Structures are given as C-alpha cells and as structure tokens.
Amino acid sequence: MADFHQEPQITTLHALHEAFDRTAYLSNLEHKLECHAKHDHMCLLLPSLFSEISNGDVLDRIVTQIAEVGYLSSIVIALGGAPEEEHFREAQRYFGRLARPDCSVRVVWVDGPRVQALLSELGERGIPTGLQGKGQSVWVTLGYLFARGEAHTIALHDCDIVTYDRTMLGRLIEPVANPNNAFQFCKGYYARISPSERSMKGRVTRLFVTPFVDTLSRVMCNQGMPELQRFFEYHRGFKYPLAGEFCFTSDLARGLNIAYDWGLEVATLSQVYDQVTRRQVAQIDLTANYEHKHQELSPHDTSRGLHRMVVDIAKFYLTYMRSHGVSLDDAYVDMLLHTYYQTALTYVRKYSYDADVNDLAYDLYQEEAAAGHFRGFLWDAWMQTKGPQEAKLIPSWNRVAYSFPLVYERLLEAIEADHASA
C-alpha cells in the first residue's frame, strides 16, 4: 500500500521501505529504537485469550519474533478467558520465555479472584468496570502499568496475527517513541487479503464502517453541523479504523475511557480525537498483508460474529451523534440506513474493479448481500440504543484514581501477589 497520499487531519506514514532491502531496514529500525530506549521505557501490551495459547502455532510465531526484540523494557499480557488457576500458571510458563534481565514479563490474570475482587469493590463504589472481554482486560492491564509508573510508550497488538513479524512491532512503536516527533497516538493499517482464497477480507471495515462514516460526514455537512462533520472526516481518514494495533503515550492513555464491546477501536479513535490535536495523531502501514482469524456473518443472531460487531460499532456512532445534539428517530435512522446502503453499493463496485485488476476472486453478489445484511444490522443497533443509553465505556484511569486514590496500590498488590504465588 505504498503511496504518497496524506489525509487532511492526520499524518500517514507509508511503507516506502518495501522498495529496498528489508533486512537492512529492520536492522536500522531496531537500532533507532534501541537508542530511543535509553531515554524511553517502551512496553508491549498483549491482550491474549487462553485459547490462543492452547492453539499454539500462530502465537508461537509471534512470541518467537518478539523474543528477538531488544528495545522493550516490559511486556505485559492481558490474559482473558482463563477462569482456572492452572490456565494462569500455564500462561506464565508460556510467556515467561520472553523475560530478560532488561525486560520484565507479567501476566495479568484478569479472571483471577484478586483482580475480580477489586473490580467488585470498584463496582460497589459506583465505578463501572464493564464486562469481561478484550476491553476490560486492556483497561485492567493499563491500570497495572500506571500503578508501576514506568511505561512511557505503550504498544498494543492482538495475538492472532498469522502474518506477524517483528518489523510490524518496530514500525508501530517508532513514531511515538521517536523524540523528534510530536505523535502521542499511532494507529496501524494494512491490506487484508487471504493468500489461500486470493480474496479481500475485512468486510466490516470495507462494507460498513467506511461507507457508513462517509454517509454520516455528508449528512452532517448537509445539515450544517460542521463539528460533527469534522469528527466523521477524522474517522474516515483512517485506512483501517478497526485495526487492533496502536501505540500511545502513557499520559494520553491515562485519560482515555475504554470501550468494553466491539466498539473498542472506534471508541478509542473518538477518545483520542477529544484528547489531543490532529498533528499528534498518525497512522502507519505495518505490513504488506495481514491475516488473522475471521468472524462469521451470523445474520440471525445479534450476539455473535459480524452481526454483533456491526451492531456494537453502529451503537457507538449513533449514541455519539445523540450526545452531540442530533435528534434521532425512526425516520432519521431509516434515512441513514438507506443512504448508507447506496454508498456501500458504490464501494462494492469499486472493490470489484480493484479485485479484477489484481486477479483476485470477487463475488459481487455476496458483497452486495453482506452490505444488505449490514443495513439491517444498523436498524438492530438503533432498536437497541433507543432511550437513555450511553456508550459502553469504562472510565479513564485518571477519573478512577481521583475517585479511589488507593486503586493503583491495590491493583499492583493484587497482580504482584498473583505473580509471586507461582
């Protein structure tokens, strides 16, 4: 995806290095990061389900690649889906191979009794902590990093990346860690092509988020709402808004509310929009192609697959609009979903041209059918978000620490006790 195009609101960092010696590039990149590491504590946060450890092959590759990295000061794993202590112990053994004298490794047992007891206490104090899932796991683990008071630059990526290599990690971190830059947030992007099927993936981004945000931007412009127009143009500027890879400073991260549903990525972009200036935001091309596990469409079950993902993302955007002065009703949302659908069909045709010239398989009918399903999912989101609904956000750690000053001490104590009892 190497080109020169720049978005109006954010900086785009392209993969121009791919035209040259990639081995030499990686060596130079890691040398720069090792120099930055003399003045900057860099941490990698890995949200991992226990099932990803059990399945092995993909995560084995990721861990092997990370083990070659010399600039990280700490690696923290946000372990989810691990209700049993034996799961936690196995995760400790598995990720323990990453530990070095100059790089600490901690597994945060989010489902463990100590952390859960603290979450229950926060709930009793009126502080919502969300539901179990990636968002809550990331939030808890960020709190642990803040309690330690060491990390300055924090990178986060998923543990199901089939095409992972450590160049991705270095490129994700470098824009924020580089002291010559002003970036506080950097989002990854990439192409999503299945090598085995020779077809485009990333349906929710391609067929829902991109055309839906385009629709909202135009509607806000036509209705004379320039602030919301700029907000949606900012979201449209990201090439892959649902990417799970991003890097930010700890100062920024402390002030972010964290979504605990499938709206995590778009909610994070929105929080960043509210916290920093556009010149402090970048996106970077991480890799020539990115492959990970795929979700089923699940057209008849709002609790699973792409159905749930689209509903959660749409609910976030609809709630955001209502909270910023847009009066939604059935007729308004009906207009939105039909306008979205026409926009999506335009994109489908463009994707077909792109696929054709690149000799990719492309089922025009199935793509149009998926857009039709997403139109229906948008209505499902509206039905669920009527009334006094709020976005599913866990309060920022700045707010939590203000309400409960001992929270960092208690969280650090719980997680270190889990670690010491191994």
UniProtKB/TrEMBL annotation:
Protein name, as recorded: Glycosyl transferase
Q: Which InterPro entries match?
A: Nucleotide-diphossugar_trans (IPR029044)
